[in-house]
Amino acid sequence: MNKNIVKGLISATLLLTASSHVMADTQGHNISSTAYKMVLVEDVPGMTALQAGHIEEGLSATLSASKYTVDDYSRYVNLCAGYVQMSNMEKAEKACSAAVKSARSLVAVPSMSVRAYAYNNRGIMKLMNNDNLGALADFKRAAKVDSSGIYKHNLERLETALNSAQTGVL
To answer: Hey, is 27 helix, strand or coil?
Structure first.
């Protein structure tokens, strides 16, 4: 893995999901502060388009990028986020699972926190597929690997929603 790819893996940008299903705010709070958040790996072709909401353009650029430009892990993390935004859950599941699999085999990366990107995004994909327990497990894995705000936010938001559902408040 070359140094540019490692540098790209270490920095990431946040992406608020565009799906109304994921962004549904059952408590009536401001969606921008409560929405589930996804991660995109920077310096991957198509990242800017994905972040700007130009999903098809972003996916096309990411898919057509040379394997010498983008490593598999970074490509899959961004494809996962893009397909989730498009609500193409079949392709999202494949990309998200491939990102997690790639993350487990990354030994050259100096920080294991990049694994959290893959688990976090896969958790949102599972949430959109109504697999709340699978999403919870992935959010917990992400938060365990990296305790930064995004992972804690997603985990706490889902735990609150699940606890509310158990008490009949939802």
So the answer is: coil
Q: Is 46 in contact with 62 (CB distance < 8 Å)?
A: yes
Three-class DSSP category at 52: coil
> Rounded CA gap, 25 and 18, in Å?
13
pLDDT tens readout for residues 98-143: 999 988 876 555 456 778 889 999 999 999 999 999 999 999 999 9
Among the ranges given (48-52, 91-95, 100-104), the one the predictor scored with the smallest mean pLDDT: 100-104
In terms of CATH, what superfamily is 3-166?
Answer: Tetratricopeptide repeat domain (1.25.40.10)
Phi then psi dihedrals of residue 18, to 5 deg: -95, -5
Q: Which residues pair with 37 in a beta bridge?
A: 16
pLDDT at 80: 96
Q: How many Å apart are CA 16 and CA 91, to the nearest integer?
A: 19
Q: Please say whether the beta carbons of 125 and 89 come within 8 A.
A: yes
Q: Which residues contact 9 (CB under 8 A, 6 or more apart)?
A: 41, 71, 73, 74, 106, 109, 114
